[in-house]
Design brief:
single chain; mainly alpha; two-stranded antiparallel ribbon; membrane; transmembrane
Length: 157
Amino acid sequence: MSYDSSPSYPVPPHHPPHNSSPSYSTYPTQPTYPWAPQQPDPEPARQPNRHRHTALGHHSDLRVLRTAYRWQRRVATLTALGYFTLFLVLSAWAPAFMTREVADGLPLGLMLGLFQMPVTCVAIALYEYTARRGVDPIAERIRKQTELDTKRAEAGR
């Protein structure tokens, strides 16, 4: 098709040509011969390990803490759930035992059911006791060691 320059058709505006390729300075420099041997980048100088403790992720205290916490959970959970499971088993397979009267009109099953609340409180107290005695000192030791390692790392910078 040809361009009609008659007055009935307006002339499109003239735009300067657009350079679609950026200058060569914006590209990263590439070696002329990529198969030629390259000089290796110099490695940064390593500082000697001045700390006698290993990194916290590989610290043996974390394993000890996990073990203490696992033991704590098991003891408290088995205390509460063990008593409740015993109550359920006796209710299902020993109904004659559970209906035996202990006091004036108080069946053994009801008395054992009422003891569920004190046993739960004992499980909570046992959980807190084992936390204070076994888990918290280990966690505090790890916390202090982490603070010391952080201060040493900041001082070494």
